[in-house]
Amino acid sequence: MVMRIDESHRSAKLNEKRGEHWREKEHALLPFTCCFSGHRKIPAEDISKAKERLRVSIVSAIHEGYRYFGTGGALGFDTLAAQTILSLKKTYPQIRLILVLPCQKQTRGWKTVDVAVYECIYRSADKIVYTSKEYYEGCMLKRNRHLIEHSSLCICYLTNEHSGTGYTIRYAKQRALRVINLADESFFSGTE
Fold first, then answer.
1. pLDDT of res. 185
2. CA torsion 158→159→163→168, rounded to 10°?
């Protein structure tokens, strides 16, 4: 019986060391990881400007040394960000797309065309992380916090402070992430 306790103790110690190793490795990647957050609906008249600002901001981040790009796999801005990363991989093959998904059935209730786009992105992603197996109230929040906690830069499209994106960006600022809001006209004045 003592032997089992010792084995369990050794196993627990080994798992603890592995956990510490992975936490250290993840922490070491923070300076090279960028996440995205944005609204599911972007006004039609703003989409082309948002796409161009997104592309320019990502390329700038790549030149600063960012290599890992995490997105939440949602409709709207998340999809736009993922598609932009996948497009830029042709020019910058060193970059990686990480999908951080709130649950395994995220697309339940989506339109067929949206599911098809999601599945294409899903198949092309370099890494997929689920923050929860099943949907529950709060799983989107958990996904958003995961993205922020594993990044040092957040590129967002925020026009409504009283939204999930607004909460996520406030959390990013609390954690001292650099935030680039593509919807902030003052940030881009004179650059377009």
1. 79
2. 20
